[in-house]
Amino acid sequence: MLTGVSVPLTLLGLLEREPSHGYDLKRDYDTFFGRGKPLPFGQVYATLGRLARDGKVIGGQAEPGDGPDRKRYAITELGASEFDDWLTQPIEPEPHLQTVLFSKVVLALMLGRPAEAYLDAQRAAHLQRMRELTKIKRTGGLMDALLADHGLFHLEADLRWIDVTSARLGALAEMVRAT
Amino acid sequence: MTSSLTQPQVHRSDGFLIEARDVYRSFGQTQALAGASLAVPRGEILALMGPSGSGKSTLLHCLAGIFPPDKGEIWFDGERLDTLSDTRRTELRRTAFGFVFQFGQLVPELTVADNIALPLLLNKQSRKSAYAAAQAWLPRLELDGLGGRRTGELSGGQAQRVALARAMVAKPKLLFADEPTGSLDTLTGELVMDLMVSTAREEGATVVLVTHDARVAAYADREVMVRDGKIINRTGAEVEVGR
């Protein structure tokens, strides 16, 4: 599993695509976001239960068949709104955001949303933070400068990832849609 | 369109020092700029970013009047730049613009002081005042004691500081910098950027800086992305600033 990925928000994103059973959600989550560490069934259903309790998804009638839960879940307006807010807002620029950004990019491509625009917005947020750190560096003492440098180098690494991902969006979109 | 060779077009500049309006430029079959629009307020330090081949350096050269656009307009300080005569554009480049490139801009056989004084000598300033001005720039750019050294003997960082002094000595309104730290290590590059920002602010110069390096762009007040020959805003939409 990718660290830093929000399971509830990712499941909401998968449900935004189409109503799905818990089994299908787990399969898609493991394919795109599991990275060798599958999401346990128990966590899928517990998360869906909490999302249903909070009015973000709605579960249909149980359908006949094997397995612990044969309900088909659909996203509600509240859930869609929460997912949209998460997807479209840049993340607070901090180092090591690649995993969350990766999830956003894949979900955006899956849903036909403008992934490149989200990356552009994130790039702008990162550069704004880098400007702030550069100002601290130019006006502060050596300790401030070294601490600012640490942040700057990590943000720069994120930005390189954003640039490379932007350049490869076409290929990634083909892969996501073909899966 | 009326010829502007003898009568320059003048308009309300809206506080912008330089503007590109829907600029197109091709090199053979390669479309480098495809409708780029940009407006830079006076005193701003702007970074043009983008991947290799995006058109950012071509845009800088069009803004500086080095490449004429195939289509579109360039306005500088209320004057239409792209329709000016070659003579007038050359004069503007010598008097109102300063340039810092990645390398290869200094005359290696001349001394540091000669190189810095050169733009003033070309502007017919007296030798005495040109060299006095050149000397005054040495301490500002941490070049004390290097005035008599040939520039071919300098380190990369020293050479870029000389290039910066030469670009600023004629008190340009607009400084163009194209990957000015591209051949320098991190700390040397930071010193050059720090001095560039400080001197531009002190002299009230506007800066247009081309870089692919986010750490360099972070010295600017604002960045814009160039992609496929157009300016892209932070939400990814094509944008025409200042229209």
Description:
- The complex is a heterodimer of chains A (179) and B (243).
- Helices cover 69% and strands 5% of the residues of chain A.
- Chain A is mainly alpha-helical.
- In chain A, strands 1-3-2 form a three-stranded antiparallel sheet.
- In chain B, strand 7, helix 6 (186-203) and strand 8 (206-210) form a beta-alpha-beta unit.
- The longest helix of chain B is centred in the last third of the chain and has 18 residues, at 186-203.
- At the A-B interface, helix 6 and helix 7 of A face helix 7 of B.
Q: Major sheet of chain B: order of its strands? A: 6-7-8-3-9-10
Strand residues, percent of chain A: 5-15%
**Structure summary, number of beta strands of chain B:** 10
Give the CA-CA distance, first to last residue of chain A: 18 Å
Rg of chain B (C-alpha, Å): 18 Å
Uncertain residue ranges of chain A: none
Question: What structural class do the secondary elements of chain B suggest?
Answer: alpha/beta
Largest sheet of chain B: 6 strands, mixed
User: Helix-strand pattern of chain B, N to C?
Assistant: EEEHEEHEHHHEHEHEE
Given as residue ranges, the uncertain stretches of chain B (5+ residues, pLDDT < 50) are: 1-7
The H-and-E topology of chain A, N to C, reads as HEHHEEHHHHH
Put the structure in a nutshell:
The complex is a heterodimer of chains A (179) and B (243). By secondary structure, chain A is mostly helical. Chain A is 69% helix and 5% strand.
